[in-house]
Amino acid sequence: MNTPFDPDPVIPRRSVVARLRASFLTGLVVIAPVGLTIWLIWSVVGWIDGFVLPLVPLSYHPDRLIQDLLGLDPTSQINVRGFGVIIFLLFTIIIGWMAKGIIGRSLIRFAESLVERTPVVRSIYSGIKQISETIFAQSERSFETACLIEYPRRGIWAIGFVSTHAKGEISRRSGPEDEMMSIFLPTTPNPTSGFLLFLPRKDVVFLDMSVEDAAKLVISAGLVYPQPRVDDEGNPLPPKLESKPN
């Protein structure tokens, strides 16, 4: 299956409309990610500014400061985005720094104990906390490597991500004959949903490609393959030895 970036196949007497259509699709593939990224960043920055700036005195708003500095008409509108983001980042850093201390941890435990006693609030808080911890997990809790597993039956291969080694009761009850691994099997084209599988290490084929390249392959439904590993002279490198998760 061809992608919009593949060279046009040799088709005799290809119409002008078909050529324009192919060029339009190629340009759309180039423009859409850039445009959506800029739009998303601009929208998020505006949303944060709209939430933070009302808490800042009007005389300290960046548009008012620029008006006073340049001597402009106070009724003129100057849209300065990003000031609220800076305040939000500084505030978040300060809160995180305080939360690492003994006093901060004690206050957090006390506040969470109060929340746990509130019937409705505790359900909302616990759900949001679990989502936040999952999204903003530290690097040591992220996926270790990409792999291949036979799923849903022998002979059919699927891309998965090694989460951790199976621990606790899962490891004890699965049998001591082979080490069990936790594998996350993502769905296409939405890799945030999928299945959690526990497989013996011998049934897991580790890949040399990075987790990011494997995720791109899943999201694109097999259209975007990672570039092959080559040496300085452009020769393909042999596969790495299996030195993946210990």
For this entry, give a set of tags.
single chain, 246 residues, alpha+beta, SH3 type barrels, 3 domains, five-stranded antiparallel β-sheet, 7 helices, 5 strands
Please give a structural write-up.
The protein is of the alpha+beta class. The protein folds into three domains: 1-84, no CATH class; 85-135, no CATH class; 140-219, SH3 type barrels (Roll). 45% of the residues lie in helices and 13% in strands. The protein contains seven helices and five strands; from the N terminus they run αααααββαβββα. Strands 4-3-2-1-5 form a five-stranded antiparallel β-sheet, covered by helices on one side. Helix 1 packs across helix 3. The longest helix has 37 residues, at 16-52. The mean pLDDT is 75.
What's the SSE blueprint?
Elements: H1 16-52, H2 62-70, H3 83-99, H4 102-116, H5 119-135, E1 145-150, E2 157-165, H6 168-173, E3 180-186, E4 194-200, E5 205-206, H7 211-219
Antiparallel strand pairs: 1-2, 1-5, 2-3, 3-4
Helix pairs in contact: 1-3
Considering DSSP H and I runs of 4 or more, what fraction of the residues is helical? 40-55%
How many structural domains does the protein architecture include?
A: 3
Task: For the record, give the distance between the C-alpha atoms at the N and C termini, rounded to a whole number.
Answer: 38 Å
Class computed from helices, strands and strand pairing: alpha+beta
Q: Unreliable stretches, pLDDT < 50, 5 or more residues?
A: none
Number of helices: 7
Order of helices and strands: HHHHHEEHEEEH
Counting DSSP E segments of at least 2 residues, the number of strands comes to 5
Strand content: 5-15%
Please tell me what the overall shape is: flat
Largest sheet: 5 strands, antiparallel
Radius of gyration: 26 Å
**Cross-sheet strand order for the largest sheet:** 4-3-2-1-5
Mean pLDDT, rounded to whole units? 75
